[in-house]
Design a protein that fits this description.
two-stranded antiparallel ribbon, mainly beta, 37% strand
Amino acid sequence: MLTAPPALAGTAYYMKNYNSRLCLTIAGGGKAANAPAVQYYCDSHPSRLWTFQYQSGGFYKIRNKNSGLCLTIAGGGKAANAPAVQYYCDSHPSRLWTFLYQSGGFYKFRNKNSGLCLTIAGGGKAANAPAVQYYCDSHPSRLWTKLSPYTY
């Protein structure tokens, strides 16, 4: 296990899915609470960018640059295939993620509340496929590329 890169002031990161080569974003660039997380092309829209705020115990809040809201699992759900959304950055454990380093510079993002990993539903490769949580198995859709910095 390796922790995430340090959260540097003025730095946001793309979270690129290994399987699809698309980036995690909020559908339509939305700013509302409970807007769904999906994958989309890795362009310069600020909804494709995320910052990482260390909390404690190896956990981070993952905050969307466009909305300022945090990546979480809808309703604090613990079931496989529960959707990933953005929500207020409060103290609920579903807002916390740990980064599991994999070989080749890839990561799995495991939710503290459920113990499940961020993935794209059904291993989909299409733009706008929803992000969900699922078992932390070896499917390539559970892997995310080494975080690529984007300085603004």
